[in-house]
Design goal:
Length: about 170
């Protein structure tokens, strides 16, 4: 097997120069490792709503903004038209979920962000927000890293207003 470098003399010094094939191989390996580290899909449980809910959620998820709190989109695992993820740690969005426990009694706890009502539930690592008073239940799990977590709701409110029919506004 041949050597992977060649010696070149310039100004009386010997320099080791990588052969083009070697440099290309090392560069490709570095790029593959770098890409793999930052693009792992985010595991998100996919709900199994009625077909009409899935049909209504698909355009809402597609209409989500290119960034949430300056976080870039990420792939989800499994891929689904009902889920989206942004950033690291991931902000997770799921459309078509069931209403969370305690939400029925929480209408008075509804708070509004840009015309969209939300129910908030503290989670171990942040807050889980669920739309309230809308046809579809959309859940957004925002890690504490993004504190104040409710700021994420301003980025998604246009998609929710456009693609999720208002039934009962916050009172």
């Amino acid at each position: 097997m041949g050597r992977s470098t060649a010696r070149v003399r310039t100004h009386g010094r010997a320099l080791a120069v990588a052969r083009p094939g070697f440099a290309l191989t090392v560069g490709c390996i570095f790029l593959a490792v770098l890409t793999a580290c930052g693009s792992d899909p985010v595991p998100i449980a996919v709900p199994e709503p009625a077909p009409e809910v899935t049909d209504a959620c698909t355009p809402l998820v597609k209409a989500l903004p290119p960034k949430i709190l300056d976080a870039e989109p990420r792939d989800t695992d499994p891929p689904s038209p009902l889920t989206a993820a942004y950033g690291d740690p991931p902000i997770e969005i799921t459309c078509g979920v069931s209403p969370p426990a305690g939400m029925a009694e929480a209408q008075s706890q509804c708070f509004e962000v840009n015309g969209v009502g939300w129910y908030a539930k503290e989670a171990g690592n942040g807050v889980i927000f669920t739309t309230i008073g809308r046809k579809l239940y959309v859940e957004i799990a925002v890690p504490k890293t993004y504190s104040p977590e409710a700021n994420a709701l301003t980025d998604v409110s246009d998609a929710v207003k456009t693609h999720n029919t208002l039934i009962t506004p916050c009172t």
